[in-house]
Amino acid sequence: MTPHPSGWLTPRPEGLWCAPGGFHIDPVQPVAHAIVTHAHADHARPGHEHVLTTPESLAIMRTRMGEDRPAREQQELRYGEGLRIGDVEVRLEPAGHVLGSAQVVMEYRGSRAVVSGDYKRVADPSCAPFVPVACDVFVTEATFGLPVFRHPDPRGEIGRLLDSVRLFAERTHVVGCYALGKCQRLILLLREAGWDGPIYLHGALMSVCDTYERLGVPLGDLRAATGRARAELAGAIVLAPPGAIADRWARRLADPVVGLASGWMRVRQRAKARGVELPLVISDHADWDELCRTIDEVDAPEIWVTHGREEALIHWIEGSGRTGRALRLLGYGDEEEAPAAEGEGAAA
Predict the structure, then answer these.
(1) Neighbours of 119 (CB within 10 A)
(2) Structural contact between residues 212 and 96, judged by C-beta atoms closer than 8 angstroms
(3) Which domains, ranges and CATH numbers included, belong to the chain?
(4) Please, which residues have CB within 8 angstroms of residue 75's CB and are 6 or more apart in sequence?
(5) What separation in angstroms does the CA of 108 have from each of 52, 114, 286?
(6) What is the spatial distance between Cα 280 and Cα 290, in angstroms, rounded to a whole number?
(7) What number is the average pLDDT over the span 110-117?
(8) What is the pLDDT of residues 34-78, one digit of tens each?
(9) H or E stretch including 64?
(10) What is the C-alpha to C-alpha distance for residues 258 and 235, in angstroms, rounded to an integer?
(11) How far are the Cα atoms of 213, 302, 343 from residue 11, in angstroms, in the given order?
(12) pLDDT one-digit tens code per residue, 251-303
């Protein structure tokens, strides 16, 4: 008899636990064996005995944590490569969230479960696109799991930014963005839109950009913003952590136009509350339509929902003839999209 994944994949306080494999997925506490979907700090925690992730995620984790902190033993697994862990066949497939982000595909005695981590479905020049994998149980995030969240074309949002730069050529445009993923995506979207000049960066964004370059993602002319004369930054585009766009650091710029790139900028009250003059609705998470499309494509009879607005999505799942389950895993602050979190420059 084929065992249902609910019998061998279970939520624990540390994170999802795969019993026949003897590992946790994205554990929030130090464990013996961890598989990490991507390098955002709410999924990639230090202190494990052994960690398995993609080469790109491991390189970024080392950049952010230090060479030894991701785990005492560190193992890479490339997309599509199979590995037997205990009694479970494991492989990683692209999640389309940030560089190196992966879905964890597990097969055990004829049943298959897929843990998506965080993901999006729109094209992103900075990372590999999401790959749907048919399965018996699909674990999906629900950061934007409400029908009101339908993200516009990011190229149109970048067009709005460039229109503003042309209109207010004497002012600095400073855009808040998270250091991992969003920053590099904005840079490449700007390059695709024809901005071939320098892009200035807050110092907190430099190290991950350098890692992307080492991993084969060219970002073009990047320069440090700190220490520049105000006149030099007139007409420039500056990227900075969201926590820096409203503090003394930003006030040193030339009459800054303050922007923030986030899926939460769909809610205009949030933009107003944060003093954002130019809200850019650009998210690295799936919107409502992408969540529903993905659930249809993987065609799993059972969907487990976590990391966000579970109730509305579960209602839609059950209306489509599937079984929905809210995992309510603790400890995932959703560093990359949390509207109120500042932390390491967190925001969308």
Answers:
(1) 27
(2) no
(3) 5-148+284-326 (3.60.15.10), 154-280 (3.40.50.12650)
(4) 50, 51, 52, 53
(5) 18, 12, 28
(6) 19
(7) 97
(8) 999 999 999 999 999 999 999 999 999 999 999 989 999 999 999
(9) helix 55-65
(10) 13
(11) 37, 15, 26
(12) 889 899 999 999 999 998 888 888 899 999 999 999 999 999 999 999 999 99
- Give the Cα separation of 178 and 346 in Å (integer): 6
Longest dimension (CA), the chain: 72
Per DSSP bridges, beta strands 102-108 and 88-94 are: antiparallel
Tell me what pLDDT residue 330 has: 54
CA distance 279 to 272: 9
The set of residues, in sequence order, having a beta carbon less than 8 Å from that of 144 and lying 6+ positions away, is 151, 263, 283, 285, 286, 287, 288, 291, 308, 309, 337
* Residue 343, pLDDT above cutoff 60: no
Take residue 127 and report the two structure tokens written for it.
């990372």
- Encoding tokens for residue 128? 């590999």
With cut-offs at 50, 70 and 90, classify the pLDDT of residue 248.
confident
| DSSP bridge partners of 278 | 259
Q: What is the DSSP letter of 285?
A: S
- The tokens for 95 are 């999640």
Is residue 171 within 8 A of residue 257, CB to CB? The reply is yes
